[in-house]
Specification:
nucleotide-binding; BPL_C; binds adenosine-5'-triphosphate; globular; biotin--[biotin carboxyl-carrier protein] ligase activity; SH3 type barrels; five-stranded antiparallel sheet; alpha+beta; 5 helices; seven-stranded mixed sheet; ATP-binding; ligase; BirA Bifunctional Protein, domain 2; 2 domains
Length: 243
C-alpha cells in the first residue's frame, strides 16, 4: 500500500476518487486536516486537527461493483477488531458506524466505481474512515448527535495506530474478495450495538419499521423483529436508531 499524508484537504475520499484513473495499486491517503469530510447522502463528517484520524484507502477488487454491497459491514468488523487490540469495546451500528458506549466513534463511507477498461469483473472502492480521538465542544455542536472519542489514543505512536488499522483493514479486504460477506456475518453480529434492543428504522425522519434489532442476514440486510414478523431492511438511505 502506498501511503500519502497531506496537511490539509477537503475530502480524502474525493481526492482518491479523482485519482482512481491514475492508480496502479492500493493507496492510503491521510489528511491532518479535512475541511469538507463527507458522510452518506450528502451529510458531512466533522473533524479537527489533532483530534481526529481521517483517511481513505483506495483498493481494487477483482469483483464487479455490485459484489461490493456488503463491504461497509466488513470494514466495520475490521475497524472494531483493530480497536479491540487496544482494549476499546467498539460496537457496530448498521450499516456503517462504529460506536463506543452507544456514541459514534467512527464513520465509514465507501464510494465505488467500476474499473473502466475491465467494467464487469473489477472495481475500485474508496474506503473513507473518520475516527474521533477527542470531541471538543465546538465539534460536538457541529455534529449535533452523540459522538465520542478515545482521548488516550493520542498518546499512542500515530504510526503504530495507523499500521494496526491498516493491517486489519487489508486483511479484511483480501478476505472479502475471496470469501465475500459470508466471512463477516457472524463477526458483525457478535459486535452488534443493538442486539436484542428496541430500534426503529427511519426514512427521512419517518418511522418505516420498529421492533427488536436482530443483526444482519447473509445479504447484509438488517433484521428487525416487528409485531408483524421479521423484516429485512436494505441499506438504502435509511437510518437506524435505538428506540
Ligand atoms: P444515520 O445514523 O442517519 O444512518 P449515518 O450515521 O449513517 O446516518 P453518516 O452519513 O455515515 O451518518 O455520517 C454523517 C453523520 O455523522 C452526520 O450527519 C453527523 O450526524 C455525524 N457526524 C459527523 N461528524 C461526526 C464525528 N466526527 N463524530 C461522530 N459523528 C459525526
Amino acid at each position: 500500500v502506498t501511503v500519502r499524508v497531506v496537511e490539509e484537504t477537503g475530502s480524502t475520499n474525493a481526492d482518491l476518487l479523482a485519482a482512481l484513473p491514475t492508480l496502479h495499486g492500493p493507496v492510503l491517503l491521510q489528511a491532518k486536516r479535512q475541511t469538507a469530510g463527507r458522510g452518506r447522502a450528502g451529510r458531512s463528517w466533522h473533524s479537527a486537527e489533532g483530534k481526529s484520524l481521517t483517511f481513505s484507502l483506495a483498493w481494487k477488487f477483482d469483483l464487479p461493483v455490485h459484489a461490493l454491497v456488503g463491504l461497509p459491514l466488513a470494514v466495520g468488523v475490521a475497524l472494531a477488531e483493530a480497536l479491540a487490540m487496544f482494549s476499546i469495546d467498539a460496537r457496530l451500528k448498521w450499516p456503517n458506524d462504529v460506536l463506543v458506549q452507544g456514541r459514534k466513534l467512527a464513520g465509514i463511507l465507501i464510494e465505488s466505481a467500476g474499473a473502466g477498461s475491465v467494467p464487469h469483473d473489477a472495481s475500485w472502492a474508496v474506503i473513507g474512515i473518520g475516527l474521533n480521538i477527542a470531541v471538543d465542544d465546538s465539534m460536538a455542536a457541529a455534529i449535533g448527535r452523540a459522538a465520542t472519542g478515545v482521548p488516550w489514543l493520542a498518546d499512542l505512536d500515530p504510526n503504530m495506530l495507523m499500521a494496526t488499522l491498516l493491517s486489519s483493514l487489508a486483511e479484511a479486504l483480501v478476505q472479502f474478495e475471496h470469501e465475500g460477506l459470508a466471512a463477516f456475518i457472524g463477526r458483525w453480529n457478535a459486535l452488534h450495538a443493538y442486539a436484542g434492543q428496541a430500534v426503529v428504522i427511519l426514512d427521512n425522519g419517518r418511522v418505516l419499521h420498529e421492533g427488536i434489532g436482530r443483526g444482519i442476514d447473509a445479504g447484509g440486510r438488517f433484521l428487525i423483529e416487528s409485531a408483524s414478523g421479521q423484516v429485512a431492511v436494505m441499506a438504502g438511505d435509511v437510518s437506524l436508531r435505538p428506540k
